[in-house]
UniProtKB/TrEMBL annotation:
Membrane-spanning ranges: 66-85, 91-112, 293-314
Name of the coding gene: dacA
GO molecular function terms listed in the Swiss-Prot or TrEMBL record: adenylate cyclase activity; ATP binding; diadenylate cyclase activity
Catalysed reactions listed for this entry: 2 ATP = 3',3'-c-di-AMP + 2 diphosphate
Name of the molecule in the record: Diadenylate cyclase
Assigned EC number: 2.7.7.85
DAC domain location: 109-267
Sequence similarity: Belongs to the adenylate cyclase family. DacA/CdaA subfamily.
Single biological process term from Gene Ontology: cAMP biosynthetic process
Amino acid sequence: MRPGLPCRIAPHRSGRRNRPSTNPVEKQKGIDVPSFLRIQDIADILIMTLLLYQLYSWFRRTRAMQVLLGLGVVTVIYFVTRFLGLYMTSWVLQELGTVLIVLIIVVFQAEIRQALYRFSLMRHFFGSRQETQQLSRFQEIVDTLFSLAKKRTGAIVVFQRSESLVDQMLNGVSLNCEITPQILEAIFYDGAPLHDGAALIREGKIALASCHLPLSQNPELPQFYGTRHRAALGLSERTDAVVAVVSEERGEVSLAVGGELHRLSSAGELVALLEELILPEKEKPRESLRQRFFSNLLPKTAVLLIVIAFWALITSRQGAIATVTAPVRLHGIPQGLVLLRSSPEEVEVQVKSFSSLTPTPAKLDIAADIDLSEVREGAAIVRIRNSDFKLPSGMVVGSVNPSSIRIVTEKKVRKTVPVRVALRGRLPRGLGAYRVVASPDTVEVEGPSGQISKLEAVATEEVDASKLVKGKEYQKNLLPPYKNVTILRDEPLVLKLVSRRAVHQ
Ligand SMILES: Nc1ncnc2c1ncn2[C@@H]1O[C@H](COP(=O)(O)OP(=O)(O)OP(=O)(O)O)[C@@H](O)[C@H]1O
C-alpha cells in the first residue's frame, strides 16, 4: 500500500522538454472508467489473483494471516478515504501502512523466509530428495508409533518432504542413524535424554532428535490438545512436512498435514496416508488441471473478487488530463530525398491517464516520432497519429494540436565541385611567384538538387596568407555551403605553397 498522494502536474519550468501548457491540468468531472477491457488488464487481474491466492495458501493458518488480514482492512479503508478525497486520513493510513509493513517483516521473518523458499524454483534443484525415503520403513515406523501409543509414551516424528525445515526445527541433536524400532523407542523412552521434542526423518534416516517445533496458534484446536499436538500442527502449518504425533495421555496416534490434525484408528490407515503423502511425485496419480482449478473454489472466488475490486478502484480514479508540449522528431526519410523544411517543430498533445499508477504526463519524455518513409518529393502534409507517441500503459493521447505537419523534400543529388582556398591577407614578401593550392582540389557533395545545381565551389576554413611558409603543409577543413548539403569527405585537405610556374606547367 504505497501509492503516492493524489498527483498534480508541476508548473512550467524552463529547460524542460515537455512543458505543461499554461492551464496544465483539467480534472475530469465524475468517474472515468475505461470503456474497454484490454488483454493486458485481464492478464493483470489473473496474475494478481494467482499471487494473492498463493500468498493466502502459504499464510492461511499462520499468525501472519491475522496481521495480513488487518493490513488488508487498512488498505481498503485507505483507498476508500482517498477516493472520497479525505487527504489527511488517507495520508495517516498510508504512513501507518508503511510502519505495518516494516513490522510484519520484522515479526514474521521466519514465515516470510519459508514463503520465499516455497516460491523459489531453485528448491526443485537443491531441495532435499524425498525420493530417498525408504517406503519399506513406513510399516516399521508406524508399528513402533502404535506400540509407543499402547505404552502411553508420547512422541513426535517429523517426515521431511520437499521444503527445508532448518529454520523451523530448533535445538535438535544430530543423529543421522538408521531407522529401527529399537532406536525410535530408545529416543522417546520416558526419561531418556532425547525424549523431549521431535525426531526428524530425512532421506531414510533419523536425522535429528529432541527438536523444538513452532507452536500452532489455531484457536479452534480442542483444549485437550496440549503443546505436543500444537507443536506438530504448528510445523505442518508452516511447511509441507508430515508430522506423526503419539499422545501420552490418550494413547492415540494422529497425523498433522497442511495445518490439519487427523486422528488415526489403525496402523494400516497411517501407512497408507504416509505412502500417499511421501511417495515421489512421479508415482502419484496427478491431479488434473480441471481438478486443481475447481478445488478451493470459495477462497479463489473471494480473492478474484478482491483483485477485481482493487483493479477497478485503481483504474477508475478520476482521470487526469494534461496538455504537454512535445517536440516533433522526424525519421525514416527515403534514401533519394532530402528534407528541406518542416513545421511546426513542437506540437501540443493532450494526454489522459486512467490510473493512479501511471506517472504524471509532465514527467514523461513525450515526443511525436513521425515516420517519413512514405513521403514523395515536394511539399506534403503528414498527419500525426496517436501511435506516434510512446506512452506507458494506462495513458492515451486525447488530441494533438496541430494534427499534422508540413514538410518540403527535394531529390538528393551528388556533384563534384572545385575547392576554393579562402585566403585572408597577402602572402609574405618574396613569395609573389607562389600561390596556395589544395590537395585534392575537388570534392564530392550531396544535397537537394536545387542547391547543388547552384553550387560552384566549396570553400576551406580561412587561412592567414601572411603566416604561410614555403615548403610547409597545412591541414584545413571544408565549410558546408548550405545546411542541407553534405561534403562527402571526412579528412581535412592539405594546403601548400606552389610556384605559379609549376602550376602552369
Ligand atoms: N515446541 C515443542 N516442540 C516439540 N515438542 C514439544 C514442544 N512443546 C512440547 N513438546 C513435547 O510435548 C510434551 C508436552 O506435552 P503436552 O502434555 O503438553 O501435550 P499434549 O498435546 O497434551 O500431549 P499428550 O497428549 O501426549 O499429553 C513435552 O514434554 C515435549 O516432549
